[in-house]
Amino acid sequence: MLFRTITAVLLIVLLVGCVSSKNKQPQAMPHYTLGLSFLQSDNPTLALREFLKAIEDNPKDPQVHAGLARAYQYKKAYVLAEQHYIKALVFSDDDPKYQNNLAALYISMERWDQAIEYFQKASLDLLFMRPELAMMGKGYAYYRKGDYPAALQAYREAETVAPRLASLHFHVGETYAALGRLELATASYEKALLHAPTYSEARYQLAVLLLKGQKIDEAKNLLTIIVEQDPRSDWGMKAKDFLKALK
Predict the structure, then answer these.
(1) Residue range 94-102: mean pLDDT, rounded
(2) What is the torsion angle, in degrees rounded to the nearest 10, for the CA atoms of residue 187, residue 192, residue 196 and residue 200?
């Protein structure tokens, strides 16, 4: 299965930042910083090694626990990731960014109700810097649960906060598509592309809808653009295969 745009990875609030002076110990800083660097370079194994060293130096630092949880999540060690996100919440007095990230983990674990619960908590916290991510995450959890009206309602809430968020419009589109409302789905995918012209997945799904409407030439044009813009990605390869099938 192709990597989905709204996987837990994109719902995660970035952990980059300074370790709180209240919690840090100087020797924990290099390991924590290295761990973040390895996460950003998609090397979860080395990140895990550094975060484990950082935890030894400062076992009550919420950011270190969150970083360790993130590394475990990359490695699909979801139970361990959950344990450390919960510790991050305990040691941070329920920081909403860790509520959001725990909810994103529950997306990976397909525990939709718990994801909805924690996304809701994060979205209602006035100190949370990215409430639109939590609202969108809640919508996606409802979508995966099969409650499409609730998903659309959550997406509408997110749109009031971040009307230019391309991934949000994409997921509105896929929800309308699941409901069979193809004109609204098409409009939503087009809106996603308006805000992110190189959004390959949105262009691909729009091409699929055009094919359903027998607009074969328009669909081919969209697939060709994907191949030209993003040839080595999963969506570029899939678009290339689709074009071959159409020929």
Answers:
(1) 96
(2) -90
CA 194 to chain centre: 20
Nearest to 143 by CA among 119, 178, 170: 178
Task: Provide the b/e sequence for 22-57 (b: ≥16 CB within 10 Å).
Answer: eebeeebbebbbbbbebbeeeebeebbbbbebbbeb
Quick one: how far is CA 102 from the chain centroid? 12
Average pLDDT of span 212-237:
95
34 closest CA partner among 24, 48, 23: 48
Tell me, yes or no, if the pTM score tops 0.85: yes
The token duo for 26 is 């100087």
- Which amino acid is residue 55, in one-letter code? I
- Encoding tokens for residue 73? 């999540």
- Is 50 exceeded by the pLDDT of residue 138? yes
Q: Phi, psi (5° rounding) for residue 6?
A: -105, 30
